[in-house]
Structures are given as C-alpha cells and as structure tokens.
Amino acid sequence: MTDTEDNTSVVPPADPAPVAAPPAPPTAGHWVPYDPGRTLGIVGFALSFIFPINIAGLILSIVGMVKSRRAGVSNGFALAGIIISAVGILISAVVITVIATTLIGAAVTCAQLGTGVHVVGNATYTCTPTSFYVRYGS
Questions:
Q1: pLDDT, tens digit, for every residue of 35-73?
Q2: I need a labelling partner for 111 at 20 to 30 A (CA). Which of 28, 131, 135, 138 fits?
C-alpha cells in the first residue's frame, strides 16, 4: 500500500423514510349528510312517551321533521315522535273525556238527590255538601 492510495470507502447515502400514503376518500355508502333537525327529532321522540309533556314532544318532532325535510334528509326519530305523540294525545283526550263526563254526571246526580247515601240502580252515591262518592255494584 502506498501513501497515495486513499483508504476511505464510500458509504452510500441512507434511504429516506418511507412516506405514508394519503387516506382514501370516504366511499359514497358511508357519507352521512348534515341533519339540522336530528337533535330535535330525538328529543321530541323521547318526550312523546311522557303523558303531560307529549304535546311538547309533538311540537319538537314536527319542527325537527320540517328542518330535516328542508335539508333533504329523512328523520326517523321525528316521524316516530310525531306518531307516538299523536296517539298518546288522542288516548289521553279520550280518557280525560270519559273521566270528566263520569264526574260531571255524578255531581249532577248528587245535586238532584241531595245529601246522604242513595242507591240508584246498581250504583251507590254518597253525597256530602262538599264532595261525592260513587260506588258501583253491591
């Protein structure tokens, strides 16, 4: 080996770090459009099961449905809230009507019969100046 020879070896440059591929765009089946009435539909649906506030559930469900329709999106919660609230309101109205007519009829009968215990047909009326009580059967 002579002094003129160079003993340094050439080192090849290091490979650059691999670059990650960009994420794939979402497919058409997984894209969910924005629904401005979804939250109102869910709240209206939840409130539709509770008797005194199912009217509020009906209103919120209708508003949620209108907002969703304007955005071009279907809203199943709002539709279910509208149906359940409407049925609940109808049933409540029928029950309240039956109870009110029964109580009014008993009050009218007690007003005609006066104070005391009276048996009319199969019903026993207990009438006091401030209240009345009706018992059916024996």
A1: 899 999 999 999 999 998 999 999 999 999 999 999 999
A2: 138
